[in-house]
Design a protein that fits this description.
The chain is α/β, with parallel strands linked by helices. The protein contains nine helices and ten strands. A six-stranded mixed sheet has the order 6-7-8-3-9-10, with helices on both faces. The structure holds adenosine-5'-triphosphate. The site of adenosine-5'-triphosphate has 12 residues, from strand 2 and helix 1. It comes from Pseudotabrizicola sediminis.
Length: about 240
């Protein structure tokens, strides 16, 4: 399989804190790739480096073979790297339609209403266009966030803790949604819910203290002693 994103020696320290410390990583075309690790392991910092939200200190990132290490975030979005934030980033006072329309417009979509309808359809929110975003249930707000990500027509969709705060009944629908997005869209999923990540991911990267502890299929990760000791074995609160 071909790598869509390839990071080599990616590094970001905050003072003496090695948040991301020499990470090699590859995201393969059409896969669902889980990113896990204890709280503070560097997951959010790592995807912020990939998306250009924070600058890289050293190392390189390439997208389909092109060096994007120093490309500004908005230009990475144009090239198809979309990152939905950990905190719901919808505009609560705007309608569902307008929220998705803003995302579609930002990438210069031609037929905005059609794009909005398509994105809302994919997340199962057809008919909710006129609702004020802030009045939606939490689960629907998370789906709206994904619809906004999809309206960017991403090559890669980075989801940061998408199931956080969802009711257990909503999680199955969310998993089905993520599965429906591949292989057209490649998914990088930061997820604390082990059932979700083990069930969804083709491969998982485990970060610990800013470094890669293991990469492999879910079964390999589950069986990995170092991963069990650092993360899976203990009593880790969702963060
Ligand atoms: N802007 C910043 N300034 C200083 N330290 C930071 C900054 N951003 C993150 N850190 C620190 O870097 C480390 C990695 O944080 P990060 O949020 O990337 O971890 P994480 O694996 O996403 O954690 P969680 O699972 O709790 O979301 C933490 O110790 C955090 O406190």
């Amino acid at each position: 399989m071909a790598a869509v994103i390839e990071a080599r020696g990616l590094t970001r320290h905050f003072g003496g804190l090695r948040a991301v410390d020499g990470v090699d990583f590859s995201l393969e075309h059409g896969e669902i790739h889980g990113l896990i690790g204890p709280n503070g392991a560097g997951k959010t910092t790592f995807v912020s480096l990939l998306s250009g939200r924070i600058p890289v200190q050293s190392g390189t990132i390439s997208l389909n073979g092109e060096d994007i290490t120093h490309l500004p975030a908005h230009l990475r979005v144009r090239k198809g790297v979309a990152y939905t934030f950990q905190i719901t980033s919808v505009y609560p006072r705007l309608s569902v339609f307008d929220n998705v329309a803003l995302a579609a417009q930002s990438r210069g979509a031609g037929d905005v209403p059609a794009e909005v309808a398509q994105a809302l359809g994919r997340v199962g929110m057809t008919g909710l266009d006129g609702a004020q975003a802030g009045t939606l249930s939490y689960g629907h707000q998370r789906l709206l966030e994904v619809a906004m990500g999809l309206a960017l027509r991403p090559v890669i969709l980075i989801l940061d803790e998408p199931t956080q705060g969802l009711a257990s009944g909503e999680i199955d629908g969310f998993k089905a949604l993520i599965r429906s997005l591949v292989p057209q869209t490649t998914i990088l999923l930061i997820e604390h819910n082990m059932d979700v990540v083990m069930d969804l991911a083709d491969r998982i990267t485990v970060l610990n203290f800013g470094q890669v502890l293991a990469v492999g299929a879910p079964d390999q990760i589950r069986a990995n002693k170092a991963v069990q000791d650092a993360y899976l074995g203990g009593d880790h609160a969702a963060g």
